[in-house]
Amino acid sequence: MDTSIEQLKNIIDNSNKITFFTGAGVSVASGVPDFRSMGGLFDEISKNGYSPEYLLSTNYIQNDPKGFVDFYHKRLLVAHKQPNLVHQWIAQLEQDERSLGVITQNIDGLHADAGSSNVDELHGTLNQFYCIDCHKQYSKNEVMTQNIRQCGICGNPIRPDIVLYGEMLNQNTISRAIKKIQKADTLVVLGSSLVVQPAAGLTSYFKGQNFIIINKDATPYDRDADLVINDDMVSVIEAVSLQVF
């Protein structure tokens, strides 16, 4: 077994208050493209001349509500995507009461789909929707199976419960995430470049024993970590999770 994998396995085996912090890399194996991948949002630029930041902004939903609704129906809904081994491993450790849960930058809802219950979704979730006017709530299943685009009560557009550009992160979610990191004996960052603020800065609240970063590429926080693994995430977790499954 590779030395770094063995070290990771030993840390996980001896931790009882693990907090996970995940980014887009966790969901790539589930077929969810990251923000800047080909086939992702940047492909939209050549088709309509808008930047991805504008397509996911409060300005777009205000200027062109129908265009925004059409966009997220086409590009963001991922009903056919399923959790992968990494999501399942994280959920299993929580169910075994060895993890405090997961903090995620992802909006795909796959942690919840995998069975994680203590999830802080910093940027919201595509599992929930609401009317922009009366705030009636809808589930992703309702939106997709019934192709719901307007509210059944007031007729206004419905939107996913995600944080758009121009909106603030939910402060209650941030507070829960900070407490989860502060209580952890081990913090495991998975699939995040740790460049998006203020989310990435939350790792500075960790005062525990083991700060681990598992990501394909280097991050600005690697120098602060006790263990850094730059490798395929599914392969890494497969190697350390054999005793869990």
Describe this structure in words.
By secondary structure, the protein is an alpha/beta fold. It has two domains: 3-31 and 83-123 and 169-240, Rossmann fold, CATH 3.40.50; 41-78 and 132-162, no CATH class. Helices cover 34% and strands 18% of the residues. It contains eleven helices and nine strands. It has helices at residues 3-13, 25-28, 45-48, 52-55, 58-63, 65-75, 85-95, 110-114, 140-145, 171-183, 233-240; strands spanning 18-22, 99-104, 119-121, 124-131, 137-139, 158-162, 186-190, 210-214, 227-229. The model has no long low-confidence stretch (mean pLDDT 88).
CATH fold group of the largest domain: Rossmann fold
Order of neighbouring strands in the sheet with most strands = 3-2-1-7-8-9
Straight-line N-to-C gap: 18 Å
Query: Roughly how much helix do the residues carry, as a percent range?
Result: 25-40%
